[in-house]
Design a protein that fits this description.
The protein is α+β, with helices and mostly antiparallel strands and 90 residues long. It has a single domain, classed as secretion proteins EscU (name from scop). It contains three helices and three strands; from the N terminus they run ββααβα. Strand 1 and strand 2 form a beta hairpin.
Length: 90
């Protein structure tokens, strides 16, 4: 049986590299996910394979270079979705 996992990643262009800032498993993951879904400014993306890779990354550590292409695609998706949401609210 697999345990739910959640990983939070922070990125700002000034830092240059996404960083793992939050991790949780099981009931902690469920609680963190529920909190994130209540906030409009925290995008939530379901990506189990990526989550497994990121979960192995120590807290406050940059994401491994091997994951940059996936993280770039994820960031592009989040930014696109955010822009569409802002446009629909105008």
């Amino acid at each position: 049986m697999s345990t739910n996992k959640v990983v939070g990643v922070s990125y700002s262009p000034e830092d240059g590299t996404p960083t793992v800032i939050l991790k949780g498993a099981g009931a902690d993951a469920d609680s963190l996910l529920a909190q994130a879904r209540r906030r409009e400014d925290l995008p939530v993306v379901h990506a189990p394979t990526l989550t497994e890779h990121l979960y192995r990354t120590p807290m406050d550590t940059p994401v491994a270079k091997e994951l940059f292409p996936v993280m770039a695609a994820l960031l592009a998706h989040v930014l696109h979705t955010d822009r569409l949401n802002r446009e629909s609210q105008q």
